[in-house]
Amino acid sequence: MKIAPSILSADFANLQRDIELVEENQVDVLHVDIMDGHFVPNITFGPNVVAAIRPFTKLPLDCHLMIEQPERYVEAFANAGADLINVHVEATPHIHRVLQLIKSFGVKAAVTINPGTPVSAIEPVLSLVDMVLVMTVNPGFGGQKFLPECLEKVTALAEIRRSKGYTYEIEVDGGVTDQTIGACRDAGADVFVAGSYIYDAENPAERIQALKDVLEQ
Ligand code: DX5
Ligand code: ZN
After folding, report:
1. Is 130 noted as a catalytic residue in this protein?
2. How close is the Cα of 6 to the center of ligand 2, in Å?
3. Which numbered atom of ligand 1 lies nearest the CA of 6?
4. 186 is catalytic
5. Is ipTM over 0.95?
6. For a pocket test of ligand 1, which of 141, 145, 150, 177 has the largest count of ligand atoms closer than 8 A to its C-beta?
7. pLDDT tens for residues 20-77?
8. Can you give the residue ranges of every domain in the chain?
9. Known binding-site residue numbers for a divalent metal cation
10. What is the pLDDT of residue 94?
11. Exposed, middle or buried by CB within 10 Å (0-12, 13-18, 19+), for 106?
12. What does this chain do (predicted)?
């Protein structure tokens, strides 16, 4: 099981410091939220920021593209150093093609579903992906309340993985705290994104440990 801090809630004027802070506390992945002001109301980073981060961390970079027609930017994020590119099924009419495109650059491919999107919308591409991201809030902002009803989809995806022999990881993103991570694990998730719970704390190291403590129970 993997902890993936989201730098959406980091101090953008001190990104290097805030990334080193989580890396020193043995996390597994760095989650980078890319927002375009269209697919979601907020705007964050582009590929240049990913390229700027790349040299100062060894953590795999999980780039969560909350952008319309992500196919337009896959090459730019691959060249910037993304290890995994996450695309929303709701953001493109050509999800199969985008996932193939991501893999053509030697980058891991993930498909993401919003809280209002059923698992059936991604069933045809589950054999292609390295990871499925189940949003547990509506994307766009950090610090929102966890939506427990999304966990049924995590359970369904774990069951499909088992019955079909697939190997994708299942990631959850949004509202993950020490109070909600246990239910995500019990539903079958493997990768846990946490933004505000870690970065809005006085002591982020304690928060990372609190998440690990629940996972080890
Ligand atoms: C939401 C982003 C999340 C966000 C999670 O649109 O995709 O990755 O950083 O933030 P928290 O953990 O605060 O809900
Ligand atoms: Zn995210």
Report:
1. no
2. 7
3. 9
4. no
5. yes
6. 141
7. 999 999 999 999 999 999 999 999 999 999 999 999 999 999 999 999 999 999 999 9
8. 2-216
9. 31, 33, 64, 173
10. 97
11. exposed
12. Catalyzes the reversible epimerization of D-ribulose 5-phosphate to D-xylulose 5-phosphate.
Of all protein residues, the one whose alpha carbon is nearest to atom 4 of ligand 1 is: 142
Residue 71 tokens read as 């196919």
Q: Residue with structure tokens 């054999």?
A: 127
Q: What tokens were used for 164?
A: 């079909």
Residue range 2-216 forms a domain whose CATH class is: alpha beta
d(CA 131, CA 158): 11
Which residues are near ligand 2, the ion (C-beta closer than 5 Å)?
Answer: 33, 64, 173
Q: Which amino acid is at 156?
A: A
By residue count, the chain amounts to 217
For the stretch 139-151, pLDDT in tens is 999 999 999 999 9
Please name the residues in contact with 206: beta carbons below 8 A apart, sequence gap of 6 or more: none
Question: Which residues sit opposite 169 in a β-bridge?
Answer: 131
Question: How far, CA to CA in Å, does 211 sit from each of 51, 119, 133, 148, 199?
Answer: 29, 27, 19, 17, 13
